[in-house]
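Appendix B, example 12.
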Amino acid sequence: MFRKEQPQTIYTWRTRQSLHLYIADALDTSGKLPVDFELPELYSSTVSSVYFPEGAVVPPEKIRELAKKLKKIANTGDEATAAAFFQDVVALPDVLNVIDVFLEEISNYALPIEPYLFSFAHDMAFCTAHINSAKFGIAVLGLCQNRIVSDKLKVMAVYEKLTVYSTIALLNLSANPEDDLFDIAGKLHGWGKIKLVSRLAVVCKRDKIKDWLIAEGYKNTVDNGYLACTCALYGGLHIKLGKDVIDIKFFNEATDILQAMLIGSPSECIATYPHAAEAITSYLVHATTHAKAIKHFLAVYYIKFYLEQQLIDPDRNNGWNDSAITNSLINCAAILGNESWKQLIKGILINPDDLYYDEVKQATRFLQL
């Protein structure tokens, strides 16, 4: 009379204490994470019996297999396949090197977003206790065109190992990506800020944010040179410096960002800035009025060194010619030769603990001051 029911398998890849909740609980009143914030091992250790060791190359067939599983989930909502997908993702050593290939693969499948794919991607991103799952979930959410997750993505973006994934998703989903990315940028300080600001700069249209790019946008705890040229370009540094009159506040900001470009890495430095000639020529004009602090002296010294290199460089491609270089070097010599520097420099050289001691010592040796 009674049929014996088959035992039902319960898949437990969703967790009550999710990565999203852990990050949200750690935010301070300004929406920032503590500087020393780290995830417990719970959120990054493997829970899969099949694990790719660090540095291993994930074979293309594995990525295709993942894509086929996602297709089945999107079409059927099958929980067993969802659990298997989660296990496979957790086993990956480096999601960053897999995710672009994976997204390209699934773009061939024309997956239906409803009723299953969005829900699955949401749970992968916000309802599991593993960072790989969050990365994949966020990436797939970026394709789902549902803005309801924007606020949750902004929370995840504050954790710098998730910033780039959340940034790309927000660019696809947000009704106002410029303001959303700007709101997040002020809460970041390391690689996450570098990844986010490099994208914010490209979509930036508001003067307020352009001003911020030049004043603060490039500053980070890794190396200011990574973003200085990007922020100078999209913030319109050469245009702002081209004005007849600028205030000391902006002159100081221009000094800092120019110095970051002048001592930047070869891949992102003043040589790669297309408006270098315009910006530097204008800066030196304003320096004759505003240059009074030691950091101004150092900026002009670095400009002089850069111009001397440009003079012998046959591959100039950022606006320089012999006449412009010669005139700018004459301006540098006039500024650096001002007698008012000697007393300021002398005070620094007798104090080895001074912030500028090493730079000033080197500059004065080459300038024979």
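The longest helix spans residues 294-311. Confidence is low (pLDDT under 50) at residues 48-53.
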